[in-house]
Batch of 2 targets.
Target 1
Amino acid sequence: MIHSIFDSHAHYDDEQFDEDREQLLGWVLQEKGVTGIINMGADLKSSQTTLELTRRYDYIFGGAGVHPECARDLPEDWLAQLQSILREPKIVAVGEIGLDYHWLDECPKDRQKEVFAAQLELAQKLAMPVVIHDREAHGDVLEFLQQYKPAGVVHCFSGSWETAREILKLGMYIGLGGVVTFKNARHAVEVAEKVPLERLLLETDAPYMAPVPYRGKRNDSSLIAFVAEKIGELRGIDPQAVLDITAENSRKLFGIA
Ligand code: NI
């Protein structure tokens, strides 16, 4: 029986959970061995909803931040609003924040960089870890991280092992999820084989990125068991050990007892 699944990155505020959120978060996930979840905000509204989820469920903690796709139209006082959410005790990270060059129509590069930098500064000021989103922007994201040197994790890591090494050199964690179970996930598999276990976090990005055999379906934190199984197989270790170590890593990074 699997236990101690810690999901370092999920979006249970997503409308795909509207129908059964209460059952899932109330008991279903815990019965399947989930002991901790970090729900991530992507804009001011979902950061606020994240805060409400953390108040409602003991084992749920939160990140608050503005995702690059949501960075275009922000109220003038967005940073002050964000800061007040970040001061709440169960909000444990600034995230998700970063750069996304896949959806440039949503927000131009310069604006993305401006909003990213402002949040890296805020994280520094509040001494909080960051949760980084990096899609097709590996070079620029790395430059920002090298400049600000935050504690934190690059979530749903999609870069090469060479990029992973640069992230690890900065003392940061690598977040892996369902992608490691996909066919042709060459980069993610190489990283899963080589990353030091004490620097690995597991995540879903639920409702997205469900692992095989649920690929394309709605993801939830219990399916991390399939990710742990794949990583255990790649490294020749017990999947439960992968779950235990990565849960401990999440608790350490996010300061959760
Ligand atoms: Ni996400």
Target 2
Amino acid sequence: MQILRNLAAAAALFCLTASACAQAAPPKAGEVANGLAMTPPMGWNSWNKFACNIDEATVKRIADTMASNGVRDAGYQYVVIDDCWHGPRDENGFITADPAKFPSGIKALSDYVHSKGLKFGIYSDAGRLTCGGRPGSQGHEFQDALTYARWGVDYLKYDWCSTGTRNAEEAYKLMADALRATGRPIVLSICEWGTSKPWLWAEKVGNLWRTTGDITDKWEGKFDYSWGVVSIADMNEPLWPHAGPGHWNDPDMLEIGNGGLSDAEYRSHFSLWAMMAAPLMAGNDIANMTPATRDILLNKEVIAVDQDRLGRQGRRVWKDGDREVWARPLADGYPAGLKAGVRDLWLHKDVGRVAGRYSATVEPHGVVMLRIGG
Ligand code: GLA
């Protein structure tokens, strides 16, 4: 895959084999945390679009749409409510939902989401308070895990605000143990922004770990506590040896459709995430998206790259100024040196059988993504 980061169009060369391009070491062997997420999790998360303005009507509307407009059937299965769903703890310390925003309660909402053939996820924090100032799980880990299991939760995003001097590895292991003790399969999404290098210790703890601070709907650069799309990709890319089935680097949720970037830039965003075997958590208002946004999020050929069962994260294999080539070995890879079919995954077209080289023009901030083989 070639990406062009600056505003001048250019022709590009492509390596044609995994061995020529990637020279990737095999992924580390090892047990997985819980047997879940053997391909990167896909779904929707409320935060990027709705932040704290989230309620049960919105979540239902999103779930309805996902089930009826092809999003669910393209593989997006988790519906995750991020921060700010919480009410107070009750007199026994059990967490409750905000009664104004979730009047029917979380169990009813989870049942609703399940009735649409989707899975249900929720958010908490390893500290005293969440990043949005709601009650965190510190000191309530087993109680909260039990509550989530009773509610039918399938996915927990576990954040890192208000944690003081807590040790991240211990804190996440504690929640992993608590989730395991419920007997319910629950994906654990570690969200400590890469602070304690979770790629070095979390392979058997969680299923995905954030590698960076928060994404923002911009192309490049750092903005207070968040980063643009290609800056996030730069930080996540070198971590490619640590990803594999059941344990993924997480460069944060998608901004596609939130309005800050052009469609060409969003195609690059989606392509980079697929090359990096990233979790694909849509972060837009799925119930109100343009046809162009839908075409990006539902590009099944790009999704298939993300979800490739080999689970090897792709990487940058060539860079010349703002021009870059990325490559990712896939399960159906083929021997080097043979003539191979080339398919353009955004044109949805076979573009020839070639050996050694392929060239194409890449639009500004754009991408050409090719599947090579066969
Ligand atoms: C942190 C996380 C975000 C989001 C917010 C919620 O910033 O990194 O993804 O969950 O908290 O407050």
